[in-house]
Amino acid sequence: MLNLRRGISTHQPSVISLGQVWVDIMMNVDEVPPQGGFAVADHPKPSIGGSYRVLQAASRMGAPTEHAGILGNGLWANFIRQSFQDNGINHIGPDRLDEDSGFRVVLASGQPKKTFIASYGAEAHGDADTFDMLEPQNKDVVHISGNTLMDHTAAGVDGFLLRAGTDPAKRDYTLVINPTNTLRLVNDHMLEDLVLARPVWSCNRQEATTLAERLGAPIDDSKVTIGGGLDDFMRQLCEGLGSTLRAPLVVRVGSLGAWVREPGGETMHIEGYPTKAVHTRSAGGCHTGVMCAMLAEGRGLAESVKIANAATSIAIQRSLNGVPQCPEYDEAMALAG
């Protein structure tokens, strides 16, 4: 592997992602065929997936953005590299010359859940040394995604976490984990090291509930099951999970905004901006990317989440091949007030 080192110059706080990036090929079919069946898809729509959407959103907020994951050599990798260039994203991670980056076929048939078929590539074939060359600088925000925690590259993430230590106060950068819906597949050792690193956790409600169940967090949902509402449940979830993690926690709930809890503090509800969605893919990457950019800008967590809520509400009104499109900084700030 070849490694590209970060240049030495006057430093501007950056958003750096260790996450994997691949190509998504969206196919709309009337019905997902059974084994041995046949289906006709309309025009396939390739787009960049994985942590690219986090970096793209952060870049649109004006933050310097860097991808520290692995890129391959071939058709898909070239597509990714061109998209990085078009969006001002700098690839600082390893390059594999012996294989292409991977891709996913996404079958959508009008049902709530989509069918995914993955072909893993260079992004998944890292090792314990993958991120050894990464040295975050003062005020950087380092993003880790759940899609990097289930294959060979997870060993490199684990090594980075061990170097990061267990005391956020001793780091001069901010660590953010976006666990994604694959959290249930992450092994216990990897999850333990993630928890010990005490990053900022940015989850949707399903991810937060899965994490709480795995960690045995004390959550009493009786208020919800006996006439209570969402606000009661979210406060129970955030307080129980947040106290178990001993780390900042953000739980997104779509148009209703997000709940935020910092260690030792009260759970706050940051209102959303309800709008009509036209997308078919999650806008979680947009929210996480904007939040990371605002943290790198020096804003507090609650304010960063408020701006991310505004940006996401705009993004879900703008679909490109089913993918929400994050707005530029000025537009998001205008809505956030």
Automatic annotation (TrEMBL):
InterPro entries from the UniProt entry: PfkB_dom, Ribokinase-like
Molecular function via GO: kinase activity
A Pfam entry, by short name: PfkB
Keyword annotations: Kinase, Transferase
Domain Carbohydrate kinase PfkB: start-end pairs: 14-319
Cellular compartments per GO CC: cytosol
Lineage top rank: taxon: Bacteria
CDD domains for this protein: YegV_kinase_like (cd01944)
Protein name per the record: Sugar kinase
Organism for this UniProt entry: Bifidobacterium scaligerum
